[in-house]
Amino acid sequence: MIGIWGMGGIGKTTLVKVIYNQILDQFDGRSFLNDIHESVKQNGLKYLQSLLVADFLRRERQDFTSVDEGTGELKRRFRDKRVFIGTENVLAFHLDFRVGFEDCHFTGEQFRKLSKLRFLHLHCDALEGNFDGCLSNLRWLSLHSSILMNQMPMPANLNLKNIVVLELTSCDVRDGWDSIQMAVKLKVLSLRHCHYITRTPDFSRNLERLPDLSNLKLLNEIKANECKRLDEVEGPDDLCSLRNLEIRNCTSLETLPDLSSLKLLERLDAGGCEKLHGREGLDELESLQALNLRQCKAITRLPNVSGLKSLQWLDISGCDNLTEIPGIEEINPISISRY
């Protein structure tokens, strides 16, 4: 995926046409759509679909009676065509099949030639097959299930050794997923709506197994919001670079591990964790600036917070059973939300 920005009239479209004409022979299906937004605005999505089919089949354009008919025709034509081939010079790829293409699957073989790919963003139904030897230079991987309420299964041998950012939305990530153990350069991990996950990877256990033990300590952000079945978070005490921990609305989570070693942690968001009551080491987070415990109804008492000298924002609204916050008068946060 290549984005070209700039003011009107400087030759962006001309440049795109030149590139298009140079690579069009590499694809079974091809189409050049100029000014998509204006075309859809004036003629509708059915017109755009008919142009695509006409170009792919090299025939005269024929109108569709509905968008659904056009979508069905495109799906049928795409399914038997190698329109996703790629070259080794592609550095980024973004495919979004959220509307009308919910049964689109990709296999490791389709990524075989993309040896230099560094950014991959996919909205699809599944990744299948053997990914061994593929995507070895990938830095940013963002995977999203295209089907509402569906958990996209993950391939077992994704190459994540160079991954810096890993974003998984509505993916079936189970305990023991070995690929993430290779992500020694990982800095940002985002898990959203991964309903089948029961715990995050045990990063401390990974450190014992990986040859380069120090690299995993680059991780500075974990997002595991909305993981309803998550009931355990293990091993963050070795993540000395961690600055942001989000576990918002993990309604099965009851305890947190010892947080005392996270000296750089600036933000802890546990809002909506209704069963959460354990908070060992919370009083030693000297860099903590924002603490969200909103709707944590199981918490009855916080530890002495007088050591949280950096704390500026505290949300304890909805903590109906919280009766005491020792040391709060000594730090005087800028903002405290109680209701």
TrEMBL record:
Q: Which InterPro entries match?
A: Disease_R_plants (IPR044974), LRR_dom_sf (IPR032675), NB-ARC (IPR002182), P-loop_NTPase (IPR027417)
Q: Which residues form the NB-ARC domain?
A: 1-82
List the Gene3D superfamilies.
P-loop containing nucleotide triphosphate hydrolases, Ribonuclease Inhibitor
Q: Which GO terms describe its biological process?
A: defense response
Q: Which Pfam families match?
A: NB-ARC (PF00931)
Q: Which PANTHER family match?
A: DISEASE RESISTANCE PROTEIN (TIR-NBS CLASS)-RELATED, LEUCINE-RICH REPEAT-CONTAINING PROTEIN
Full protein name: NB-ARC domain-containing protein
Q: Which organism is it from?
A: Punica granatum (Pomegranate)
